[in-house]
């Protein structure tokens, strides 16, 4: 699962920030809003992609778009792209 690779990478990358974690179908990580007008940053593990939302403003999808990849490489590619 993406959360198994992305979760530790988020904890390492954002060691100075606190965020909540959960399991799908809930967001796997939620960073509390720095500004209430913007809203929380939430990340979902959708199985073959991660969806990131910024409050109610916008969202993006992170996926290697390669159906030949097994779940482990998908999780790695998604993590690398999301943290780039």
| Total domains | 1
What Rg do the Cα atoms give? 13 Å
What is the count of helical runs?
2
Uncertain ranges: none
Strand order of the largest sheet: 1-2-3-4-5
Q: In percent, how helical is the residue content?
A: 25-40%
Span between N and C termini? 19 Å
- What series of H and E elements makes up the topology? HEEEEEH
Mean pLDDT: 96
What about the largest sheet? 5 strands, antiparallel
Strand percentage, roughly?
15-25%
Descriptive overview:
- With 84 residues, this protein is α+β, with helices and mostly antiparallel strands.
- The protein has one domain (2-83).
- 30% of the residues lie in helices and 24% in strands.
- The chain has helices spanning 2-13, 71-83, and strands at residues 20-21, 29-31, 41-45, 50-54, 58-62.
- It has a 5-stranded antiparallel beta sheet.
- The protein is globular.
- The model has no long low-confidence stretch (mean pLDDT 96).
Brief rundown of the structure:
By secondary structure, the chain is an alpha+beta fold.
